[in-house]
Structure formats: structure tokens, C-alpha cells
């Protein structure tokens, strides 16, 4: 009996060893999570939310570094070129794949140069305007914007980055409806929100994570939701589709954590485990819901497939679209 047990253990050992190794990697210095947008935007808020529990589990500081520029490509490129030792990570959103397609000359390949760790979730984007403007509905806004353009006082249309969801879908609306608005790109969502509040920009598409307090205070007015469904936490705002404007049909972006390509398997597996355990905490789930974010964990393989899906959709969606800054 003892011999059979020993043989069974010996046979199982090659299978058990990798599993044990995967859970035992321990970082030997602080981990940096690079956010490729300025502090205060939705991406930054999400990254800071997960940094604390990840730090607890990894037993080292997990630091957030905001490195914005080039529509998110500067920060992403820094991670793509970092040593794949688990100490430099990227928390980002769909511009990871959108910006290279739109702007060209990307310093990285969004699929080949990263190791997906996990998706945090998604958020519904909302088209909104400065509350000082008179329109109360999307149809009223369309009429108002056209009138302003005819009078030589065309409105301004902001986005958090050239080639982002905010840019492409707002431009699609502008072109389809002949609104005569002028696009203004910002280096992140936080500066874009400041531009609203300082009356520098009139309208745009934003996350509720960054704008809800300003909607609640009456300084911003939501008019339409992007995608096929309304935002669960702001169900009173109908989608573009519901209001007869074919913009954003079927769209869903992502927010998640990645590392450089070619990370050692034990390092990658440990980071996947820690991020997954973070996302399984009910406290994290409730805080995400409170920030108008839908927790939707995806593991590395499914997250990789989601990134490829967004890349393919974005390539097709922007084909032939004039996205040059003016």
C-alpha cells in the first residue's frame, strides 16, 4: 500500500509542482501600475481601487504612476518595453488598441507586446452637455447645435483622447446629424471634465465614474447612453438607439490589467490570482457599482479575446472616417 501511495505521489508531482510554483512568486520590491492617463479620470480611479488589496496580498507597495500622452500610448509603451518581471504593470482601457489604429505609428503592438492579466469590467458611456446650454433632450440638442452652426457659433465637442470612444462616437454623431461641432482632444478624462466646468467645451461622451457628481450637482446634463442598454445606475437616460440616432450600436469597451509580454509563468499566474481575488471581494464589487462600473471579471484568455474583438471592431468602425484633429 505504501509503495502504491509513493508511486501515485511521484506520478502527481510533475503536475503539482507548476501549480505550487504559480502561487509562490513574491515580488522583491514595489510594483508600479502605470495608468496612461492623468490622475482623477475613471482609469486612474479604478487602478487606485485595486492597488490597495493587491498590495495587501503581495506584501509590497503597489504604486500608481500616471504617465499620459499620445492618447494613452506613452504609458502603454513604457510597460511594453519594461522588464517582464512583474514589477511594472499597465491598467488601461480601450484606447490601448484604439489609439494605434487611429493615430498610426504606434510604438507597440496591443496584442503581441502585452500579457493580459484580467479585465475588471465595463462602464456605460454617456453623451452629455454643459447644463448652461438650453437643450433638455437629445432631439432638442440636435436642433440647437444645428442652429448654432448656421449662425457661425458652432459648439465644441470634447474627447479624452484623439481616436478614443469619446472621439469616434461623438464624431459619428456630429457627421451623421450635420451638427457642425468642432472637436477638441484632451490628455485624459479629468482634464476634459475640467474643460466642461470652465465652459471651454460644450458637449462630449464621458464615463459616469468621472462625471456623476457634476451631473448630480446640476453642472452637466446627460442626454444619451452609448451601446445597446441604458446605464443601470442612470436608467432614466435613454440610449442613442432608443432616440432614433444610430450611434454606438453593440459597443462595449474594457478596463483591465496587463503586463509586458513574455512574463515568466509563475509571475503571471500569481498576478492573475491576486487580481482575480481582488475582484472577488464584495467590498470591491460594491465600490465599483457605486462608481457606475459593471464588475465583469475576465481571466487572461478571455480578456485577450476581448482585446482582439475591440481591435477588430475599431478597425472596421473607423475605416474611412476622418479623425484628423482640427
TrEMBL record:
Keywords: Signal. This is Tripartite tricarboxylate transporter substrate binding protein. Residues 1-21 form the signal peptide. Belongs to the UPF0065 (bug) family. It comes from Sediminicoccus rosea. InterPro entries: BUG, Bug_dom1. SUPFAM superfamilies: Periplasmic binding protein-like II (SSF53850).
Amino acid at each position: 500500500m505504501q509503495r502504491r501511495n509513493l508511486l501515485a505521489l511521484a506520478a502527481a508531482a510533475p503536475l503539482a509542482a507548476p501549480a505550487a510554483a504559480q502561487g509562490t512568486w513574491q515580488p522583491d520590491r514595489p510594483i508600479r501600475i502605470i495608468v496612461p492617463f492623468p490622475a482623477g479620470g475613471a482609469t486612474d480611479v479604478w487602478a487606485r481601487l485595486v492597488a490597495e488589496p493587491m498590495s495587501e496580498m503581495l506584501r509590497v507597495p503597489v504604486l500608481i504612476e500616471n504617465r499620459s500622452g499620445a492618447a494613452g500610448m506613452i504609458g502603454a509603451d513604457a510597460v511594453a518595453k519594461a522588464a517582464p518581471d512583474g514589477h511594472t504593470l499597465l491598467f488601461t482601457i480601450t484606447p490601448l488598441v484604439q489609439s494605434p489604429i487611429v493615430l498610426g505609428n504606434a510604438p507597440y503592438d496591443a496584442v503581441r507586446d502585452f500579457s493580459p492579466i484580467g479585465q475588471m469590467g465595463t462602464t456605460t458611456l454617456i453623451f452629455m452637455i454643459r447644463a448652461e446650454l438650453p437643450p433638455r433632450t437629445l432631439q432638442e440638442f440636435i436642433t440647437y447645435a444645428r442652429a448654432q452652426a448656421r449662425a457661425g457659433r458652432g459648439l465644441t465637442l470634447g474627447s479624452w483622447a484623439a481616436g478614443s470612444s469619446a472621439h469616434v462616437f461623438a464624431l459619428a454623431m456630429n457627421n451623421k446629424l450635420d451638427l457642425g461641432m468642432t472637436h477638441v482632444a484632451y490628455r485624459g478624462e479629468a482634464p476634459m471634465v475640467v474643460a466642461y466646468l470652465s465652459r471651454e467645451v460644450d458637449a462630449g461622451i464621458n464615463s459616469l465614474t468621472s462625471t456623476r457628481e457634476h451631473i448630480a450637482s446640476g453642472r452637466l446634463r446627460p442626454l444619451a447612453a452609448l451601446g445597446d442598454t441604458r446605464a443601470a445606475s442612470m436608467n432614466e437616460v435613454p440610449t442613442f438607439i432608443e432616440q432614433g440616432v444610430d450611434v454606438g450600436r453593440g459597443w462595449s469597451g474594457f478596463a483591465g490589467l496587463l503586463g509586458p509580454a513574455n512574463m515568466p509563468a509563475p509571475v503571471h499566474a500569481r498576478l492573475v490570482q491576486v487580481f482575480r481575488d481582488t475582484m472577488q471581494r464584495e467590498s470591491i464589487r460594491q465600490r465599483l457599482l457605486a462608481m457606475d462600473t459593471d464588475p465583469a471579471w475576465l481571466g487572461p484568455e478571455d480578456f485577450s479575446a476581448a482585446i482582439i474583438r475591440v481591435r477588430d471592431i475599431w478597425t472596421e468602425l473607423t475605416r474611412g472616417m476622418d479623425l484628423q484633429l482640427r
